[in-house]
Amino acid sequence: MKELFDEKLLYCGSLGHNIPFKYCRSMNSELPCRKIKDCWFERIDIEKFIEENYSVSEQERIFAEPPDKISTILDLIKKAQGK
Ligand code: SF4
Fold it and tell me: What are phi and psi of 68, to 5 degrees?
């Protein structure tokens, strides 16, 4: 059940304030933040939560390395040029 830990609060170093688990598990187009394991492992069994609630392909999407900034900028330039 994805909602089990929704009310638990944690300080988010990225946002600079406390946020509920519900935000962490849904902030990436309804998928969890890619840092969710690092942030929550001391508070809940986050490995079990991920395994029970997300398919293998969803987990791959959740924890995929983000594209570096230069690649993203070059892709945007190519799109703007119609390539
Ligand atoms: S999982 Fe993401 S949103 Fe949640 S506390 Fe960690 S960095 Fe912040």
Answer: -70, 160
